[in-house]
Amino acid sequence: MVEFYNAVPPLLVQFIMTVAFSFVVGLEFRTYHQANEYKLNFGSTRTFVLIGVLGFILYTLDASKQLFAVGLFLLGSFLLVFYWRLSADRQFSMFSTIFALLIYLMGPIASVFPSWFLVLFAVVLILILSEKTLIHRFSDQLANEEIATLAKFLIISGVILPLLPDQPIAALLPVTYYRVWLAVLIVSGFSYLSYLVNTYFFKSRSLIITGLLGGLYSSTAATVVISRRANGLTSASGRKVSSALIMATTMMYIRLLAIIFVFDRSLATQLLAPFLFIIFLSLITISGLLALKNQSTELHDVSEVKHPLELTTAILFATLFMVFAFLTNYVTTEYGSHGLKFLAIIVGFTDIDPFILSLLSGKFTVTDSAIVSAIMLASGSNNLLKAAYAIALARNKSVLFTVIWLVILFLASFLYVYY
User: Fold this and answer.
1) Domain co-membership, 161 together with 63
2) Arithmetic mean of pLDDT over the chain
3) Secondary-structure percent of the chain, ordered helix, strand, coil, rounded to 5
4) pTM for this model (two decimals)
């Protein structure tokens, strides 16, 4: 079979693929027009095949591609006349004319690009034709501010980041401008992903989904939201509340592991075993809690999630990143790895992301094992902070199991580092 395929001239394969995909797209184009009761003034399936063949022949016939350019100009002129005719009938859509020009490019794509790209090109055209209702519904639901939010993300990732120099900021700050903003970008990316899923897929969500998606954004913030929701509930709802809270913390470990992998694969490899062990036990615990039946009603969280790409948020994170880098450099220089471990425990009662990212981005006078220990201690003491939030905000026994679990995680992190 392979020998037969190799014996077929490449030109024949390219021609067949051009005809086949032009025909398939033409069929879908005809179905699209019939479903929407449009007039097929310049043809449909056969016309699309002829346009595809024309583009292929003119592109292959002349090495200078001048014939192809002339053909594109003539086809565009004919389609322009067709568009003027539609305009006279007060039909202003250029959809059909643009589609015809795209079919004209089918031949060159089959000749120049890999076959998988031609397949992808045809599939995209077919989806555009067949999913008109879905595309319109998505466009209607997409708020105007979402475009601005996407623009902000593109600015901080594609414009600001490449312009920053990869050189140390100062002698006391052993991190580069590039690394600082890269940290901002990665954390913002995780937050933005959580925001999009929250906004467009789970507008009315259960507590377990709140824990999952909120933990991807910030496990501490998710713990605060869920604990407030648990205030006033009976202990019968404790299994669902505890499942959601444990899920938020589980997502923290998954998020940290992914971020550390981006910055330093060696450190991620060293943290893989303890983090996966914690994640595995947490998921088993959540499954056990959800499997137990009780008489409590299903709890939902309907709070709106604001998008995380505010410029002030990015500046605050970058500032915290540099502050923790300065503190880490000072502590490791003066007190070594023991001072770093003590600092990690204290930092766990604040925002641990900028601290951990500063550890991964800077060059400090400590070993990798000391950095691994600091990450374990910071994440462990952060669990104590969340346990305190759960007790203070829920004020009932519905969070009792979670508090015990978070304290166990802290003790396990402490024992992993020191014993």
Assistant:
1) no
2) 79
3) 80, 5, 20
4) 0.65
